[in-house]
Amino acid sequence: MVKAPPDHTPMAVDSQESSSFESMMPITSPNQLPIHSMRKKIIQTVFTNDCCIFLGETGCGKTTQIPRFLYEAREKKFKSVLNKKPHRNKNLICCTQPRRVAAISVAERVASEVNQKCGQLVGYSVRFDEAVTRQTKIKYMTDGMLLREALLDPNLRQYSIIILDEAHERTLHTDLLFGIVKQALEYRKKSKKNPLHILVMSATMNVDLFSNYFNQAPVLYLQGRQYPIDVFHVQESQTDYIHASLITLFQIHRSKPLNEGILIFLTGQDEIDSTCKTIKHIVASGTESLEPILVLPLYANMTTMKQMLVFKQTPMNIRKVIVSTNIGETSITIPGIRHVIDCGCVKIKTFNPQTGLELLQVQKISQAQAWQRTGRAGRECPGACYRMYTEEEYEKLAPTPIPELLRCNLATAALQILAMGITNISNFDFVSKPDEKSIAAALRELIYLRAVQASNDNTYELTDDGRKMACFPLDPKLSRCLLASSDLGCLEEMLKLVSIMSVDTIFLTSSNINEKMKMQRQKFTMNEGDHLTLLNVYKTFIANKKTKEWCQMNKINRRNLLRACAIRKQLRRICVELQLNIKSCGTKFSSVRQALAHGLFMNVAEYFKENDYRTINDRHIVKIHPSSVLFGAKPSLVVFTELIQTTKRFIRDITVVEPEWLLESNPDYFKTRLSSK
Ligand code: CDP
Ligand code: MG
Fold first, then answer.
1. Source organism's superkingdom (predicted)?
2. What value of ipTM does the predicted structure carry?
């Protein structure tokens, strides 16, 4: 059973009294934030050091205020010393974020704080989308974008200050950036005219690790959470965190004023959709007379318009409840949230270097993530966080998440490192070095993909194809699909397909799909599998002039499809630059499947028995996901885009392939594997 207050004693969370704050103010003017009192010190620390590290509790104002402080201070200095603005260098200040939604929403917030539109002084840049103009001086961007810029200019000369925010998340991109900016710093030190300053920020992180890595960089602690948060743990370990979360939710609902919003962290879309349904059902069932609840889901796989609903103010006579994945965990402020319920788990990708397969599964969060989640409750006024795990369980959590670099497929990273001219990956200056097995697995994959060739011991170089593949902001498997389709005369089709694969699902909520929707979707179904089905949707969308009506009628996510169109344009431009053979195969779709086989050859499964398939790579039993058009069809050999672990292991986004295509694409790899059938 979950025990909630008042039976609990809150765990102490240090806080700074903030009686002068008016609760629920829509926009907090910057000088009311605790960070403001440290402005001078912040500016001085950044400008007198090459690199420094700021640790400050969530909500103290790091992300929104510090870039502005630095910009304003620099402008003032230039005005007084030189009496003119710095022209020669671009002098941008960038602040990286691990997630798109954070980069965009923070940029919009800061732009509105300076009474400007986003894209003027303050802008953002995320993959396939940006709001940046010549006026832009403060640029919020995803870490992936800065990494791509580093490919073109490893010394990142257009930036005078680079802020790596949310460093504790240790995303693959941020981790690579640590190594890159460190190298750029060395280079830029030599040039007195255009010095570089690096700032690493987070609310929770291993300070020593970073300080040591950046040659004993000084650490500045930014005091003061904006509002106090009480933290409660369950008294007994819970086996069913959804059930526990629901009980806690209704305890709060019965006892707290309706204007206090609740944010629940769960792990994934299906879980969230079904929990939202349960909450609605309980309120509607009328077994107990409960006040109304407005339930809103929040996960990556939703239209931005729907996501933005959570930021809207709710009427006073209804309680706002948001059920979110970890995308609601960092950087964002959701108005009205006073209570956070944390299930303690997260769904993440892990990689097995032996098999080369990536797996999506639920795991425990780290203490740092627990505090990030807690922090969402105290953004606008005092709050409370209810953890669905005991205090002992909390103590046993890893202090920080395992860096993505240590648990993911390194192929993309390795390709980028090699493209920057570093021929021995092990020599790259990693904050935490991935193990040799993972590096070897990545190189093996890149060799199979014919992107890389070994030269001498431990040194590798890109092949001509590899250099081309590094130009695409894509997983090398998908870049290989593009190159293969250039050879096979179906690049037009593959460009569409890869673009759809780069956006979130184009079907409106794939789970909870009812019979009627299934019927509607059937008209797009291609018997050869999901990829061609997706391609079919894309083509029909274009043929129907991309209209809203058509999308509504067919339950298609228009926004995501429009984004896919924009992505296709950009990828096509790269193909033109690389002088690829941009042709359409008409209706000869087998060449599209063949090209898919060339890129996805490590994701192959063969029919085993009943409803089971076996992956060629590690001979693991998997099932076809019910959302696939091939569900129940039992083709003998398939390639898939995704492997997910729920109650069972499922493969998703699947296409039927012929064994000879696999053999011809990679004879060495399949010689032994396919014959063991
Ligand atoms: O980065 P950090 O967690 O230190 O805080 P921040 O993102 O800079 O936000 C500082 C404060 O600004 C938050 O605690 C909110 O009170 C406020 N804020 C807001 O009300 N709405 C936003 N969209 C962003 C920030
Ligand atoms: Mg922040």
1. Eukaryota
2. 0.98
CB 522, CB 487: distance < 8 Å: no
| CA-closest residue to ligand 1 atom 25 | 333
For 280-335, what is each residue's pLDDT tens digit?
A: 999 998 888 889 999 999 987 776 667 778 888 888 889 999 999 988 887 677 88
Instruction: Pick the residue whose CA is nearest to atom 15 on ligand 1.
Output: 379
What is the number of the ligand 1 atom nearest to the C-alpha of 25? 20
Neighbours of 413 (CB within 10 A): 24
CA of 359 to the centre of ligand 2 (A): 29
Specify the pairing of strand 649-656 against strand 621-624.
parallel
Domain 229-404 and domain 409-471 have a common topology:
no
CATH of domain 409-471: 1.10.10
Mutational test site, ligand 1, from 15, 16, 23, 28, max ligand atoms within 8 Å of CB: 28
* Cα 677 to averaged position of ligand 1 atoms, centre (Å): 57
Alpha-carbon dihedral angle through residues 424, 429, 432, 436, given to the nearest 10 degrees: 10
From the CA of 67, the nearest ligand is: 1
Cα 424 from Cα 389, distance rounded (Å): 44
What CATH architecture applies to the domain 229-404?
3-Layer(aba) Sandwich (3.40)
Cα separation, 8 vs 401, whole angstroms: 28
**Superfamily designation of domain 20-221:** P-loop containing nucleotide triphosphate hydrolases (3.40.50.300)
**Cα(653)–Cα(501) distance, rounded to whole angstroms?**
9
Among the atoms of ligand 1, which is closest to the Cα of residue 379?
A: 14
Ligand 1: residues with CB < 6 A are 28, 33, 56, 58-65, 105, 109, 226, 331, 333, 379-380
- In angstroms, what is the span from residue 271 Cα to ligand 1's centroid? 28
**N residues, the chain:** 677
Nearest atom of ligand 1 to the alpha carbon of 108: 23
pTM for this structure? 0.78
Q: Whose CA is nearest to atom 24 of ligand 1?
A: 333
Q: Are 408 and 369 in contact (CB under 8 A)?
A: no
C-beta of residue 122 within 8 angstroms of C-beta of residue 136: yes
206: DSSP letter: -
What is residue 414's predicted lDDT score, i.e. its pLDDT? Answer: 93
Ligand 2 centroid to Cα of residue 9, in Å, is: 29
**Substitution site in 64, 95, 165 for ligand 1 pocket (most atoms within 8 Å of beta carbon):** 64
Q: Which residues pair with 230 in a beta bridge?
A: 384
For the segment 572-608, what is each residue's pLDDT rounded down to a tens digit? Answer: 999 999 999 999 999 999 999 999 999 999 899 999 9
Instruction: Let me know: does 133 contact 89? Beta carbons within 8 Å.
Output: no
Q: Considering only CA atoms, which residue is closest to atom 10 of ligand 1?
A: 61
Give the number of whichever ligand sits closest to the CA of residue 226: 1
Q: What is the 3-state secondary structure (H, E, C) of 134-174?
A: CCCCEEEEEHHHHHHHHHHCCCCCCEEEEEECCHHHCCHHH
The pLDDT of 246-263, averaged and rounded, is: 95
At residue 175, the 3 state secondary structure works out as helix
- For ligand 1, atom 8, the nearest C-alpha belongs to 61
pLDDT tens string 531-570: 999 999 999 999 999 999 999 888 888 888 998 998 899 8
